[in-house]
């Protein structure tokens, strides 16, 4: 009897060691990554369409986008307790703040949730963990809102809704984490072809970023111009943390097919750049924490 338990303990101990060794992975990175995607409040239109059956959702394209790069997805709910977010952040390898059309003002809504996660991720990264964040469209706007100390820095802009655009790279883009290892072909496509899906009526400018003292926090990597020539930020990354944000939607190119939306490019090159961003973000997520 005693012998059995000792053997059992040894077996358990051994399997746990095995597990730890596998978790640390001989590959030198985590090959079983999990990315959290924050849910969005359902818009009035969605609520009506589904007869008020749902109050929040995640667009399938974000899930497929993450899965296409070899990670699994968990949803992150809105309006939960601080311990819920602390707990989930310790179990995942990165977070995406998706696009949508919700208010800053909804209490315990999308923006509050982005704020909570942003602050937890900041602390975790400062303490030597490596946990990347990615904001797309409204998620990008929410990141600037939170980083600015809950200040809405957006301005109205035109010509950015339902349109595919190339990007204008800034001077030092090639020194960014996001683009420094990008194949030349990907940069050329992004520079010259309309491969980024834009669905926004509000923009964040460099001037606004400066006004809220974020110019030394976020590195602007690409800009676009609205119909009146207003220059706005289309890609940025945090100087010190693995935080990335795009005004455009890289997840749409491969996974959204509504024919009424002419702003979603499906060319071969558009698919390649969408995959570049997906792979980049999941590669950030699989880095083994210190
Ligand atoms: C946004 O807030 C306004 C009032 O502040 C409200 O009328 C509107 O329904 C809200 N929209 C959403 C999507 O929650
Ligand atoms: C922005 O990029 C587009 C596409 O490459 C180009 O036609 C345009 O001249 C650029 N604008 C500026 C101000 O550099
Ligand atoms: C980035 O490009 C500039 C020229 O635009 C060049 O001087 C610099 O060496 C490049 N940096 C890297 C890391 O490639
Ligand atoms: C602006 O941000 C820098 C850090 O990037 C900080 O040292 C400085 O105190 C900030 N200034 C104001 C006015 O908030």
TrEMBL record:
GO biological process assignments: tetrahydrofolylpolyglutamate metabolic process
EC id: 3.4.19.9
One term of GO molecular function: gamma-glutamyl-peptidase activity
Pfam families tied to this protein: Peptidase_C26 (PF07722)
GO annotation, cellular component aspect: extracellular region; vacuole
Catalytic class of the enzyme: hydrolase
Catalytic activity, reaction form: (6S)-5,6,7,8-tetrahydrofolyl-(gamma-L-Glu)(n) + (n-1) H2O = (6S)-5,6,7,8-tetrahydrofolate + (n-1) L-glutamate
PROSITE patterns for the chain: GATASE_TYPE_1, PEPTIDASE_C26_GGH
Listed InterPro entries: Pept_C26_g-glut_hydrolase (IPR015527), Peptidase_C26 (IPR011697)
Subcellular localization(s) per the UniProt record: Secreted, Extracellular space
Active site: 137 (nucleophile), 249, 249 (proton donor)
Assigned keywords, A-Z: Hydrolase, Secreted, Signal
TM ranges: none
Keyword Secreted recorded: yes
Family statement: Belongs to the peptidase C26 family.
The protein's name: folate gamma-glutamyl hydrolase
């Amino acid at each position: 009897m005693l012998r059995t338990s000792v053997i059992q303990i040894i077996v358990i101990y051994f399997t746990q060691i095995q597990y730890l060794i596998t978790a640390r992975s001989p590959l030198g990175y985590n090959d079983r990554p999990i990315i959290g995607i924050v849910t969005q409040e359902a818009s009035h239109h969605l609520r009506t369409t589904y007869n008020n059956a749902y109050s929040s959702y995640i667009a399938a394209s974000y899930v497929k986008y993450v899965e296409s790069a070899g990670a699994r997805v968990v949803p992150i709910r809105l309006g939960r307790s601080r311990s819920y977010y602390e707990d989930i952040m310790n179990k995942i390898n990165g977070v995406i703040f998706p696009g949508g059309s919700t208010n800053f003002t909804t209490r315990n809504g999308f923006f509050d949730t982005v704020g909570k996660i942003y602050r937890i991720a900041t602390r975790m990264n400062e303490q030597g963990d490596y946990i990347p964040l990615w904001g797309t469209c409204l998620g990008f706007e929410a990141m600037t809102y939170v980083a600015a100390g809950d200040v809405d820095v957006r301005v109205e802009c035109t010509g950015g809704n339902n349109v595919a655009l190339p990007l204008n790279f800034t001077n030092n883009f090639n020194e960014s984490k996001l683009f420094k290892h990008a194949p030349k072909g990907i940069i050329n496509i992004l520079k010259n072809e309309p491969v980024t899906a834009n669905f926004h009526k509000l923009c964040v400018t460099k001037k606004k970023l400066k006004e809220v003292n974020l110019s030394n926090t976020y590195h602007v990597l690409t800009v676009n111009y609205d119909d009146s020539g207003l220059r706005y930020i289309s890609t940025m990354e945090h100087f010190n943390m693995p935080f990335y944000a795009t005004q455009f939607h890289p997840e749409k190119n491969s996974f959204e097919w509504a024919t009424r939306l002419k702003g979603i490019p499906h060319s071969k090159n558009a698919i390649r750049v969408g995959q570049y961003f997906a792979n980049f973000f999941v590669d950030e997520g699989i880095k083994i924490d210190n």
